[in-house]
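Morning, I've got a small favour to ask if you have a moment. It would help a lot if you went through both lines with me. I owe you a coffee for this, so here goes:
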Amino acid sequence: MIKLNSRFLENLDNEVKLSFSIPIVLMLGFFDYLVGPEISTSIFYFIPVILVSYREERTSGIIIALVSALVWLISDYMSGHEHSSFVIALWNSIMRLAIFLLIATMFHNLWLRSSHFQRLANFDELTSILNRRGFLARVQDELMRARRFNRSFSIAFIDLDNFKTVNDSLGHKVGDELLRQVALTIQTSIRAVDFVGRLGGDEFAILYVETSQDQAKEAFEKCHHELNQRMADYSWPVTFSVGVVTFHSFKLTIVELLDHADKWMYEVKRQGKNRAIYKMDSDLI
């Protein structure tokens, strides 16, 4: 439940949060005015503060904290709550503001930590694209969507030919840069709805969402051309062996889906490397 609520809060747009939160604060202030000082509603002011603060943007949390403290002060005054001195009322408001700001800071930092750990768990540190775990999660999401709407999708499994030669002759620093360039080239060649992941070592995979075999072939041929061009730009003797499989049957697990594309990639390597083979999930080696 906490994970679900955290994801819900994170995905809400910050402007949407503010547009919902300010009216909530005003309604709370009006309720305070109606019930008077005998019934405390202070805890409910935390809701809009938390809602806005659980985000990378810190300013919105500060704004809603200030608004909440001000509304609370006004409603407290208008409800007839008498203080022996105005200084006391001001002091109470400052303390409320401090608490709101503390809550806002705490949940902002919680978002930062959650975002950091989520990125570590799902993204490759070297290339900044999805790692194996993150990529499989996207495949799982697409598999569920494909089953629901009966739509095909495609997976391209990519292995770098001669990568070990580059690593051994030019060093690991050059090898790391090569991997980053491959990731960047693939990322810029695919659609915004598609995903690329580094599965480990010099193996990459692309998830082409809602694509037929012809569409997948057209998309990857463009990507393959750009990859070869990038390798030529750096004079790296690396080529690509690729298995591209389009899936229409959704009875397989995500691991089986990936293994199917992996097998066709190894068939390319067996036949001499440096090309792509396009198959359907019904095809067998």
Observations:
- Strands lie at 153-161, 195-200, 203-208, 239-247, 276-280.
- Residues 86-122 form the longest helix (37 residues).
- Confidence is low (pLDDT under 50) at residues 1-11.
